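Sequence only, no structure available. Ideas?
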Amino acid sequence: MKPFLFLGVRPEDAPADDEYAAMLRCTGLDESTLRRVRLEAAPLGDVDLDAWSGIVLGGGPFCVSDPEDTKSAVQRRVEADLARLLDAVVPADHPFFGACYGIGTLGRHQGGVVDRAHPEPVGAVTVELTAAGRADPVMGVGPTRFGAFVGHKEGLSALPPHAVLLATSSTAPVQAFRVGRNVYATQFHPELDVDGLATRVEAYRYDGYFDPAEAAQVVADARTSGVRTVPGVLRAFVERYVHPRGDAGPGRTVLGDEMGVRQG
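Reply:
I predicted one. Tokens follow.
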């Protein structure tokens, strides 16, 4: 099979590594079949879509709705890299799954409204699938209603006009959507469990998601929320797009022309 490409944007090593481990666990892939590139570390360069079964974009502390004059040079470069990638992904309808930061990135790229009208505090929410979500081969693998963890300052107030709404919640009108047949994004974190949430709470204690003095309570509330695992949407995404179109082979590097990514 061709590998999948995981794009991380977290500058902090502990949550970045924990997120990648969670993505490996939830997709059922290993490091040879889910290859990681940390976008905050270096420019992405060109991506050969034909080299990858699909692309997964993780979350992070960036917000696309941040005022431009407050964005760091790294954030602006990451946004430009992802916009250029989506310029290729969306017309090709290439398999793509963006989580949390990914929904703002894809939503803005496709003409949706991304703003601060529907933030959700760090913790558990109940996600509800729409009729289209229940019928979707990726989002429809679980129950109609399920618990998941969120934590975001921005969200979509309006979908891109051509997008399909797949899931919603009482606190955020857009929890998941699809563009075309194969390009997905979720506001909730499909990879996140309680221990992963605790890692992120510690890493982002002073980033404005919650009162730093309440960090322990945020984690305690998550542990008693009843959320253990999210339905296997990431595994469903991977299984849908695994095709025996050649094997990258073990030990091949994620960077460089041979694996379809040329870093600038």
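The two ends are 27 Å apart (CA to CA).
Hope that gets you unstuck.
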